[in-house]
Structure formats: structure tokens, C-alpha cells
Amino acid sequence: MKIMVINPNESQAMTAMIEKTCAAYLSPDTQLYVRYGGAGMNSIEGFYDGALATPGVLRHIEYGEKDGINAYIIACADDTGLDAGREIATGPVVGIGQVAMHAASMLGAQFSLLTAQRKSIHVLKSNARRYGFANQCAGVHALDIPVLDLEADDADLNEAISQHAQHIVHTDAAEVLVLGCAGLSRYRKQLEVYLNLPVVDGLAVAITFAEGLFKAGLSTSKANTYRRAAR
Amino acid sequence: MKIMVINPNESQAMTAMIEKTCAAYLSPDTQLYVRYGGAGMNSIEGFYDGALATPGVLRHIEYGEKDGINAYIIACADDTGLDAGREIATGPVVGIGQVAMHAASMLGAQFSLLTAQRKSIHVLKSNARRYGFANQCAGVHALDIPVLDLEADDADLNEAISQHAQHIVHTDAAEVLVLGCAGLSRYRKQLEVYLNLPVVDGLAVAITFAEGLFKAGLSTSKANTYRRAAR
Amino acid sequence: MKIMVINPNESQAMTAMIEKTCAAYLSPDTQLYVRYGGAGMNSIEGFYDGALATPGVLRHIEYGEKDGINAYIIACADDTGLDAGREIATGPVVGIGQVAMHAASMLGAQFSLLTAQRKSIHVLKSNARRYGFANQCAGVHALDIPVLDLEADDADLNEAISQHAQHIVHTDAAEVLVLGCAGLSRYRKQLEVYLNLPVVDGLAVAITFAEGLFKAGLSTSKANTYRRAAR
Amino acid sequence: MKIMVINPNESQAMTAMIEKTCAAYLSPDTQLYVRYGGAGMNSIEGFYDGALATPGVLRHIEYGEKDGINAYIIACADDTGLDAGREIATGPVVGIGQVAMHAASMLGAQFSLLTAQRKSIHVLKSNARRYGFANQCAGVHALDIPVLDLEADDADLNEAISQHAQHIVHTDAAEVLVLGCAGLSRYRKQLEVYLNLPVVDGLAVAITFAEGLFKAGLSTSKANTYRRAAR
Amino acid sequence: MKIMVINPNESQAMTAMIEKTCAAYLSPDTQLYVRYGGAGMNSIEGFYDGALATPGVLRHIEYGEKDGINAYIIACADDTGLDAGREIATGPVVGIGQVAMHAASMLGAQFSLLTAQRKSIHVLKSNARRYGFANQCAGVHALDIPVLDLEADDADLNEAISQHAQHIVHTDAAEVLVLGCAGLSRYRKQLEVYLNLPVVDGLAVAITFAEGLFKAGLSTSKANTYRRAAR
Amino acid sequence: MKIMVINPNESQAMTAMIEKTCAAYLSPDTQLYVRYGGAGMNSIEGFYDGALATPGVLRHIEYGEKDGINAYIIACADDTGLDAGREIATGPVVGIGQVAMHAASMLGAQFSLLTAQRKSIHVLKSNARRYGFANQCAGVHALDIPVLDLEADDADLNEAISQHAQHIVHTDAAEVLVLGCAGLSRYRKQLEVYLNLPVVDGLAVAITFAEGLFKAGLSTSKANTYRRAAR
Fold first, then answer.
1. Touching status, chains E and A (3+ beta-carbon pairs under 8 Å)
2. Is residue D228 in a domain?
3. Are F110 and F196 members of one domain?
4. Nearest to E108 among D134, D205, D221 (CB)
């Protein structure tokens, strides 16, 4: 099968990291198409960034339909353009923020979401409610660190992130931690050990769930909501 | 004060109608700026149309900020780009779908929403839930008539719309009808008489509420969610 | 048009303040009728006070109907007698607590409510849920200061109120503050500066929204719930 | 123990019927005090009637406190003045609408509510949500028969009510029927046989639950909400 | 009438205490049948314990049906086997956790739940939501003391429990405290004095409510959900 | 990896069908362990059956832990024993009812659930709410055909099921159909063609999601809720 993974922002580093993560989780017989956005942003912080990045995401899906892509992954925790994408895709379309919450809700009674910027808290909280996880999502918290700074490999930063996560998990009585920002993926293993809890990186789950939905013979419904507008 | 009304689609007829409606409800000392989108669509039907139309809406708000606009109205029942627009606006930003529901919830115990296309039902239902009107919104229904066909002035169509609305209101035990499509504005008076119920046209309410929020000294909060991303 | 503003309590100072606030926000062509309750209470604290004050509110609305009043405002954050009033009014009836929450929900992702007495917290929380703002209302808090003491003009009190509000807004991650007690109106400007957030005084919004609903041709629905009982 | 049962309306027939029902369910060692309202209404239909009847209910509770009443029952399905009554009562205060829903939710997965007038539907629906029974309450329906006409003993009426209830229960897939109007009490037995379902008359349950709460040593909490306002 | 009280665990001490509590609250003409589980556990901590204890609870109900039992009480705050039990019982079946929440919601605006082990928090929170008390239940907290240690009569433990409860009630702004563990019954009186709040012991309420439902002529609905499967 | 699939009932035909379905979806490097319950039931209909079948499910998981099983699937749409199973499993545990709803919510705006018996409606509805799908689940409906009769290969039955599903999907405006009974798996393809909608068979999804969660390095959280009770 063919999976397209779309990074809605233009960060090359992020795109490379996404490609690497995909390689680690992909089935041998899945062909991978990684794409990135073209709206000039290196990170998506809030609704405005998301709105500007969406047309680029949709363009990739339109090309993907011509290339026979079987499933799409939107590789941003905000699930940039998810509903719009489903209108033009034949196969399933999942966002990494969305599947991370789905997975977390099957692993523990409640989860916390950790994101980079305070601006993103409401976007994620609002998504959590929309997807149905109002009760399971015990809290959404920001590191207050610019997304791009997360790429530094720095012992102090590592320790600060671990402690912050610990504090959040304790406050929320969370049983699972969801990484609500693709830039946090590299801290997953470290946090899992530090917190002694499952830590969900949406991208890893998205790869396997997108493959799973396709293998189970499922596609996006073309009744009503996700039917293409007749013009 | 200065109000900008943005029609997210490119329909000239719709824009003219919006301008006319605004003129009827505007305070004498309010200056009106009517703008329309530039994404090539004559109507917004569903998430995909909305996503493509949003950058145009945002561009108008950015220009508006330079022109000292005090409040913005997004003149589409889907409230295209509402959250994103708030990030870049100083004054209040309201959508006509949103204020229509707010108004309806103050006039009767529950309301029905009537839209043109079935594709829009979920967009509106999802907005109703997000704004807090899950209990007040008794149903969202589609006429299954293309938005642009609503512009025809035709006795049969008029009667069909009235009967359809009657059926909806009866089924939902609705006490107020909300017009969930700008193209339905012209039927408001007719429906009010036919149904003997308040029928809410979001645009009329949006004008007066946007003026009201500004007069009450209120603006969009710049804490967290609607703060512009630092770059 | 004619608007009647009803202060459900008997405080002359409060009534004078209401009259003054109305004058500041009213359209030039609106005639104002300010009335106050007659149940012997100088403030409404809790359900019991509200229940005893309601018949007085309703009597004013009954007189108002004879005088051709076009819209009513109940000038208590508890929205004393709101639903009952709608049964006997032709035009729209809004409460200042209600419209304050409506306005706040259009200005930020979540708001906090500040009231005078702990007894009122549940009344306001329960109203917030009923109106649909369970998600938007991040918290309701009491100053634990008697309503009437708020009328003192005292530097220490001013500072205490500002600090208390700051604490609340921080704890709730609120983006808007709603004043849930008419006695707090005089602190609005001060709090807006101190908190750097929109601070909503329901009365100001109520004036403009009540005018707006009337100008938009809307009235209270007489289907089912708010139809007068046949006797 | 001493229980006061307050009929918020002035109907002598209803008061007599209440007294008779109480006698059938009361424990031998409970002293019964039946009181009725004094606001001139023979039935409570909607919010307005409820608001006018409330002060009379509260006055009885105030007298009751002097007489050492241990628990109060408000004998109207709308639970007229329930929250206000709790502020001035020491012992538990329950409404017959409220306890009927509590009981029904323990007997089947979902219940329907049957009331006399359409005006009361929203009052009851709103109460159901407030008490927590949004999911358990599958529907609220009106017979559209004046409350007082229910007192007629007429075979056609009996049959009509049974058929109407059958229709409601079928439509809602209800497993329990709740009588949402004191005037329907006399049909309980008949409906139970006809529908082959538990049919809950709130008054019967209220007597036993009020006795139960008192016997279990419980009283109304005087923290915050139901504490009497300090004056 | 005949009531069967089933302790789902095997603790003899707990069973004796249950018998003693029942004796204190039972009506003189009610015959009491106390039974205990047979799955080898001395306390029910979490879903797993609950699942293993359920068949024993059901067996007792099956015997009870042969003995003409009129109502059943499941004497564990987790309400072990409640839904399953209703399928095979004719009369009402209530759990002590369930009725405690019902009672608490009639005595104050919101309640806190106190249990022994952290494992039980989610079970109780999930039950609170299912029964409809998501808004009324302000928090569920654990003492982190093994259930069986609660049987010790120790001044230090008493003081620790009182202080812990005080802290919980303060944090949650709770107006009622619900004891979410049968082992806490013995602390009810002490806590009521210390907190100056109603403290609900489910067993006491269960006795009186079960009697009340039966006296009011009510039984478990045999429509759909609680109808025995046809085999 | 090793996956254990547990059929909570004793039906050999069902177990064989499960084994066959698994073979169709399993990754080549996954070892499959199919087990079936031992409580003497050939189908699980309602809470009582579920409660009696649960200990058998748990016993298989306990054995599985000794055999190094990496993920568990409970192959009943009621998700028999799901929470309890998570307390004793190291790897993820998913139910086929649960994952079917998760998948459906990613493929369309709302789904309908189809089950065999009316007794199961509330079990599934209650699960849908608990998992977070109250808004996405537009309705749960029963065929009113005994589970075992579904195994007949009969043209009339096939047609009846298709028509019934069509009716349900139309009534609910569903965009996806979820098969809420393992016995319906064999009708999936037929229904997908007939309805022109995605039709979700939980077992197929469960296989791929369970593999996916394990591949993504995730396991059941051992904080609080799903930690084994210390004894």
C-alpha cells in the first residue's frame, strides 16, 4: 500500500525526523510518500498558522489521489486540515494528534497532553472535545518553549522537560502522556523511562493505524459530510 | 466605528445582498467595509471549501487592521476562519452562524438550523456544539438545494421552502428557526409569518452585536489562544 | 425603541449606578425605563433571594407590556426571573449575567466569573451550564465580600480586588473575566488595565444586545415554552 | 418524624388527593403536614406560574422550621422553589419531579416523562439535565390536556392516556415511565398494567425517600449554596 | 418485605458491620438477609476484583428470587454487578455507591467522594458519570490506606482521615462528602462533626431507599435492558 | 509478536470464524492464540451474560501473561471484561466493540451501531458514551434476531438484514455502520456494497490496531487504575 505523510510546515529538520520515524514503524510492503507544506512556516502555532498551512496540505492530498495513495497522515499535532482533507481523499485520513488521543484512551483511564506553546492549548483541547475525549483528557499543558528550540540536544533542556512532564502527570493524575507536538517525539523514550508511563508519539501510532484501517478494508465515508461538493 | 463584513465566497450577488442587509441594520455612525473572498468559489459548501476560502478572509482582516477596523463580521453561516481571524484582529470578530445561534438561544428554549446542502449539516452541528449550543440546537437540516439556486425568485420554491421549514420545526419541536446559509436571508420575513416563530438571520444580528461589543468597550482577548504567534 | 431595565433588588445606590451605566451605552433613540424590585432586599444572594425578588421583576414586565416596552433587561448577574419573564414579554428579555457570558465566549477561549458571595457560585455555575457555557466557563469564584461593601471607594479594597482577580485568571487560565455581580461594574476599567484582558460588565453588553435583537426584528418565541399559559 | 408536603397550587382537589396518596405510603410513626400554595393558581404550568407560586412554598417552609419539620416534599412535578427552599430548611427538601427521576434511573436504562401541557416540557427537560439525567431521560412529552381536566373519571380519557403513553414509550424505547404531573397520579396503576413497565408517581417515592434521608441522619448541607444569606 | 444485602467480598468483619448498620436503619417489618461473596477476596479494589466477585453476587440474587426477596442491596461502593443483577431480579436492585450519590445530589450542590485506594478512583468516577452525576461529583479522592487497615481503631488514623477529608472538601468546594468505601462507614459520625457537612454512608441510604422503592410499588423494568435473555 | 484473541462465549462456530478472520488480517510475523470462554454460553446477550463470561476471559489473560502475549483482543462487541483485563495484562488490551467505534469515528461524521438483540442496545450505548463517542454514535439498533441464527446462510435473511441496515442508516443519517455483534461479520462485505458506506467489523480493526499499538512501543499504563491490586 501507499501512505502519504504530510508535514504541514516547511521545516526541513522536522520533515527529516518524520521520515526517520516512519521508517522505524512502517510495514515492509508499505510505500512511503513524505511531503511538507509550502506556506512559509517552520512550525504551526495556533489557528492562524493552521489555516494558512491547510491549503498546502490539501494540495498534497489532491496529488496523492492521482498517485493512488491509500491512506494519509497529517503530521502535526493540531491535525491541520483533517476534515477538509477527508472530503477529497478516498482512503482514510488521520492526524497524529487525533490517533495519539485514540491510542492513549485505550491504554489508561486518563491522559495529559503536552505541547510547546500556550497558544496551542486551546486548539488541542478543542480537538480533544471534538474527537470525544473530554473525559479522558485530564489536561493540556504547554512547555512554553518555541517548537524549534526543542530540536536542541541539551542535557538541561532534557531534564527540564522531564521534570515538567512529571509535574503535569502528577497534577492531572494522568496515566498516559500524549506528546502534542511533533517536535517532542525525540523525547518519547526518555519520558517513558522517567515517568514510568506510556508516552504516545502520534506519528508512530498514525503509521500503524493508517495501515490498519486500510488493511481492514476501510476508507473515508462519502456520505454527506466528506462527500466532495458537486460543482 | 468601522465594521468590516467579509463574504468568504466570490459571489457578487451574495456580496450585494450582504451590503444591502447591512445598510438596513447598521447604526448611522458606523462605517461599513464589505469585502469578498478570492478563492474562486461562489459558495462555501463543507470543510474543504471553507479551508480554501479562509486565507482570503484572513488577508482582509490583516488589511483591516491597518485601516483601523473596530470589528469584523464573517458573513458565512459556517463562520469560515473565525478562530484564525481572532488571532490577528484587535477588535471583536464574529461569524454570522455563531451570533445567530447566540441570539436564538435567548429567544426560545430550542432552535432548528436550516441550511442548503447536506454537506454543511455536520459543519454547523459541530459549530453548535463548540459554541455551547448542543442542548439548544434541536436539529440541523438541509434543503438539498444548491446555494446559488436560492437566489431565484420563484413562487414554487418559496412555498417548498416554507413547507420544509414547517416540517423541520414541527419534528424538532423548535421554538426558533436559524437560517444557516446566507442565501436564505431573503426568505426570513416570509418564514417568520408562515411559521409564526422568530426566524434568525445571522447577518442582521451580527451587525448589531458587533457594534454592541465594540460600544461596550470589548475586544478580542490577547491572552494565550488569540495572541499572535511570536516569530 | 423602549427598553426597560429592572434591578431586582431595592438598593437605590445600585439603581442609580445602573441608570448611569445605561446612559453611557444607550443609543440616542432608545427610551430608557429603569425599575427596581420591591421585595425588601438590597442585594440578591442565592436562590432564596432570587425567588422572593422574582414576582417584583415580573410585575414590572407586566406593566411594561402595557407601556409598549420593546425589550427587557434583568440587571442582576443571577438573571432573576429570566425564564418566567419571557413568558409574559413580547420582545426579547435578557439577563446581564447571561449576555455577559455570551459576549465573553466570543472574545476568548475561556472565561472566569467573579462574584461577591460564595452562595452565588452555584447559581452562576448552574446558569453557565444551562446557557451552554460549561466548557467556556473555566471557573466561578467569590470575593467573599458583601455586595454592598463593594460600593466603598477604598484603595485597599481596589488593590485586593485586582489581586484576587489576577489570581483567579491565572488559576483558570482564563482569557476573559466576567463580572458576575452588578456591584463590581465600577471596577471594570481598573481590572481591564490590571489584568490586560477583556473584562465584561453584563449591563453594558445587555443594553447593546437588547437593542440589537430588537433592531434585527426579533422577539421572544411564543411557541411552547414561553407561550403564556391559557387560563 | 414530621414531614411537610407542600402543594404549590391552590387546588383543593389536588391537595386532597395528595393527602390521600401520602396516607397510603407514610410510615406509621411519621406525622404529616399537608400545605397548599396561596398564589391563586389551580395548576402550575410553566416558569411564570412556578415563579409566582414559589414565595408561598417558601413561607410554608419557614413556618415548618418553627414547627420542627424534619423533611419537606414539594408536590409539583416542576419542583417549584426547590433550590430556594433548601436555603431555609434544616432537613432534606425533595421535589416529586426530582425523586421520580432518581427512582426511574435506578429501575431501567432510560425513562420517558409524561406531562399535561406542552409549556411544561422544557421546564422538565431542563430539570432532568440539571439533576444529571440527560442520558437517562429519553424524552419529555405532553398530553396537551389541561391539568384540571385530568381529574375527570372518563373511560375515553383513560383509554386515550394509555394509548398516548404507549406511543411515547415505544418511540423513546423507554423502560420506565415517569408521571411528570401530579394530576396523572391516579392513572399510575392503569398505566403500569397497560404498558407492562414500572410507572413512577413522584409523590409515593418522595414520601419514602424523604423518610429515608432523615432516617439515614442526613440534612441539607449548609456549606455555601444552601447556607442562609447573612443579613 | 424481604431485603437481601450482599457484601461482594468475603470479609467477616465487614459483613458483621454491614449487618449491624442494617439493623440500625431497617424498618421493623423488613426481614433482612445478609450474604457475602465467595471469590476469596477480603476487599474489592478495582475492576478485576469486581469482575471476579460478580458471579457470587449474582448467585445470591438467583437464590433470593427463589426466596421471594423484594429488593437487593449491593454493599460495595463500586456497585459490583449492579447491571447484571438487575437482569435476574424482580424487585429493585441498588448499589450503595449509587444511592449515596443520589442522596448527596439532593443535599448539596456538589459532593466529593472519598475512597480507600487510588485504584478505585476511576471506577467511582466512571460510575458517577454513568449515573448522571458528572457535574455534582466535584472530585474522587483516595486515602491510600488499604481497606482492611480502616478497621483499626486508632486515634492517629482517625485524625489523619478527618484532616484528609477536610482537605478534599476544601479543594473541591464540596458541600457533601460521600464515603466511597464500606470500610469508611465507622468514620461517618466523626467526619460529620469535624467537617460540619452531611456525610453520606451509602448503606444507610440504601436500606431506606430500597424499602422506599418497594413500598412505592416499583420494581426493575423488564423491558429491553434488564429483561432476562431468552435461552 | 504474539496476540491472544479471546472469544468470551463457547460457540465453536464463532471461534472458528474468529480464527479465520484473524488469519485474513494478521501480519505474517504475528503469532495468533485464539481462546474461548468457559461459562457455558454460546452468545453474550446483556450484562448478566457478560458478567458470567468475564472470569473466563481473565483466566486466559493470566495464562497469556505467562506465555509472553504482547497484546489481547476481546472478541465480543460488548468488550466483555475489558477494564478488568487491563489490570492484569502488560501489553495493550482492546475490545472489538471499542476499536470499531474508534475506527468509525475517523471515517465519517457519525455512525450507527447494529446489534442482534435489543438487550444489547444499552450495553453498547453505554460503552459508546464511556469511550467518548456520545456525539459520533447516532444510534444503536437491534435486528431482533438471535445471535446464533445469524450463522444461517439464507437469501431472505441476507436481504432482510440489508434492508434493516439501510433503514437505520437513513434514520440516523449515519455515514458509517458499525457491526455491534461478532455474528454479523459475515455480512460486512454485502452491507458495504448495499449501503455504499464503510462498514466496520471490529475484529479486523482490532487485529491491526493491537499490532499497531505494540509496534508503536505502547503498553497498558500501570499507574493507578490498571495497576494490579497489591495483596
1. yes
2. no
3. yes
4. D221
Chains in contact with F via at least 3 Cβ–Cβ pairs below 8 Å: A, B, D, E
Q: Which residue of F has its CA nearest to D110?
A: F122
Please report which confidence band the pLDDT of residue F147 belongs to, taking 50, 70 and 90 as the band edges: low
Residue A90 near residue A62 (C-beta atoms within 8 A):
no
Which helix H or strand E contains D3, and what residues bound it? strand D2-7
Residues F103 and F192 reside in one and the same domain? yes
Residue A229 lies in a domain: no
Q: What is the mean pLDDT of chain D?
A: 94
User: Do E72 and E126 belong to one domain?
Assistant: no
- What is the total count of domains within chain D? 2
Alpha-carbon span C123 to C78, nearest angstrom: 7
User: Bridge partners of C142?
Assistant: C115
- Residue in chain E nearest D133 by alpha carbon: E132
Would the CA dihedral through B158, B161, B167, B171 be positive or negative?
negative
Verify that F102 and F195 share a domain, yes or no: yes
Instruction: Give the residue from E122, E124, E130, E141 with the most A CB atoms within 10 Å of its CB, the best one to mutate.
Output: E122
**D153-180, pLDDT tens digit by residue?**
788 888 999 999 999 999 999 999 999 8
Both F77 and F170 in one domain: the answer is no
Containing domain of residue F78, as a range?
2-96+205-215
Under 8 Å between Cβ of C150 and C116 = yes
Model pLDDT, residue E231: 67
Let me know whether F6 and F82 are in one domain.
yes
Give the count of alpha carbons within 13 A of A64, CB side only: 32
CB E135 to CB C122 under 8 A? Answer: no
Tell me if E55 and F58 make a contact (CB, 8 A cut-off): no
CA distance C168 to C187: 15
Q: Model confidence over B33-90: pLDDT tens digits?
A: 999 987 888 889 999 999 999 999 999 999 999 999 999 999 999 999 999 999 999 9
> Is the same domain home to E88 and E15?
yes
Mutation for E interface: D21, D93, D102, most E CBs within 10 A:
D102
Give the mean pLDDT of A109-134.
96
Chain A interface with C: residues with Cβ < 8 Å: 121-122, 126, 129
- Pull the grid cell for residue C55: 414576582
- The CATH code of the domain that includes D155 is 3.40.50.12500
Which ipTM was obtained for this model? 0.96
Asked if residue B220 belongs to a domain, the reply is no
Q: Chain F residues with CB inside 8 Å of E133's CB?
A: none
